[in-house]
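Appendix B, example 12.
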Amino acid sequence: MKSKLFLFFTVVLLASQSSALTPEIHVEGKKELTVYNREGEAVHSIPLEPKDLQAKTEEASPAIERTSQALVVDGEGNVLDKISLEKNIRDDAFHTAAIGARVATVAIAADEEFRSANSNWTSTAATLVEEMDDAFNRDHNFDLDIKLYISWSSQGSSPEQLLDDLRKDWASKYNYDFLIGFSNDSHILSVGGIAYVYSSNPSTMAVSLVNGTQSYSGIWHAGQHELSHNFGAGHHSSSDYTKCIMNYHYAYTVDYWDSTHGSIIARNKSWFGKAY
């Protein structure tokens, strides 16, 4: 049998690299999924948005740092449309200083349930991704540039299976940096989001998946958290109350990283994008 990988939180989970997906574990009554895929990559999830925050209303007001164009494709990759996203920040010294010196490209995938719930799904998804990247711009001079919208047909009976389905269907088909999925499938509803935690520069697009049934604030917070996993950032232990978006206690209420997780992103952001 191949050697086993070890991952420590408040419990220890053992997973063989060659085995199938491991069982779920639970921490403090919150559902937490920590599994390994067959390539040995860790898969982390975030619990659902707390009920007391689900009714929170937030006006969509992300900073859009650059004007860009993106293609819209169907489930076979056929081009359906071309969409422009217009910059909305001013060209003065204060605002241009917030534009990331490193720019990574993004493909957005939305499943049939998310598209059905959002009539203008490309605009909704783009606004959420631009909201996610504001903190990356602010703290890490790192910007996300949307290049593709994918009509994805999600398949799977659990969050990790949906994530794996997204990866298998699309991660290797385009040469972008990130593949960010949005799903309203009934099998994503047990978590706020789920993503691969890479230990080195991934050979395909880095994949994350967000539960799109949460509040606007809940979706983009979960998305920022999951995207951080792609940089190799893990979680805080359940007994740690350091304010950080990677801490379950604060993941839906803050948009910044503590020094430890911020250092991981700063160190590994060179995996993605180009410097300008």
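The CA atoms of residues 69 and 84 lie 4 Å apart. The longest helix spans residues 121-140.
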